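Q: What structure does this chain adopt?
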Amino acid sequence: MWRGILVFLLLAISTVAAADERPRQINPIPFAHEPCSVLDYRPCTPSYCSPLEPGPCIPEIDYPYGQNLQLTIESMPSETDRAKYQKPDHDLDTIGDLFAALRTCWSPPSDNARAGMQMSVRFSFNKAGGLIGPPRLTYATAGVPADTRTTYLNAINASLKACLPLKFTSDLGGALAGRPIAIRYVDNRELGK
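A:
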């Protein structure tokens, strides 16, 4: 009987202590850490759960940086990057293989080209290695005439069309299907010389 009374008293004390605390503000945005102090008696971010805590339990998830599928393709790669521009001789099995295949596809325009031109597009692949839709223009160098932008966009579309469908392994095709890929094309050729 005394054990039951002792357990009841401990639960009552912990409930009163939890009720006296100020409610904790939870910021559900990843890596939006609240200010910390070395004198705090609990973690600064909600990385643990307790049945005595009011409010939801939101675990801290360490989202890896650099998981976006973003790629920069230069018209004239540097000597150190030249190996990245070699087309793989096997079915594409990794993101590195995909990026190498996309780099080898690029054929910059010869007419109406402009040194320093940059253009970014965004698109997605299906499991079979084809495009889900046409590449969407997301950025073009400011101050460039519309006909130059059109020339570069047509060159991007023609380059991708010439390489498609890419030959993905079943694992890579399943992992990439529907994920957006952003490519920035940089025309770093020395034109007019």
